[in-house]
Amino acid sequence: MIKKIRTFINLVESPGGVWLFIRIGAWAFLMPILVHFLSIPDLMRFITPRKNSSKQWRQDKLRNMAFFWAGQKKPLLRGTCLKRSLVLYRYLRLQGEPAQIFFGMRKEQGELKGHAWVLIDGKPVLDNEDLNYQVVYSYPEAKARGDRGLEELSGIMD
């Protein structure tokens, strides 16, 4: 229990960090619902901030909070690269970063696998991430490729 408290304190660092932690958790909870009811292009328009926040957060803090919420085992909080990438994309764009989200697919042992990731200036936000996927959609400047529909893509993400 003490280890969990220390982890939480290190993660949030301040009262402002607690508020950020709660907001990221709310978006992590909301993302699976939004993915279910909105097309990917509509979802991206909805979660892309219209203006930047005056707040600035460290990328590692945003990554750690997104991973924390994506790592939960509770319904609607189960981790996926899709949810994690959507939340990271939203918060990076909120602070004015030129983040771009990608959705890709590949076949592994005859099975179709999907993955979502975020790049800033062409570099992955998450280090050591396997990006050997055929990009089927990216946002902004979304360019759909391949034969599969975007709605089908959201159902197969890791």
Describe the structure.
The chain has 158 residues and is an alpha+beta fold. It has one domain. 46% of the residues lie in helices and 18% in strands. A four-stranded antiparallel beta sheet has the order 3-2-1-4. A hairpin with a 2-residue loop joins β1 and β2 (111-120). α2 (15-37) crosses α5. The longest helix is centred in the N-terminal third of the chain and has 23 residues, at 15-37.
Short structural description:
This protein has 158 residues and is of the alpha+beta class. The protein has helices spanning 2-12, 15-37, 40-47, 59-70, 81-94, 150-154, and strands at 99-108, 111-120, 123-124, 134-139.
Distance between the termini: 30 Å
Q: What best-fitting shape do the alpha-carbon axes yield?
A: globular
Number of strands: 4
What is the overall pLDDT average? 82
Radius of gyration: 16 Å
Note the main attributes of this structure:
4-stranded antiparallel β-sheet, globular, 158 residues
Tell me the layout of helices and strands.
Layout: H1 2-12, H2 15-37, H3 40-47, H4 59-70, H5 81-94, E1 99-108, E2 111-120, E3 123-124, E4 134-139, H6 150-154
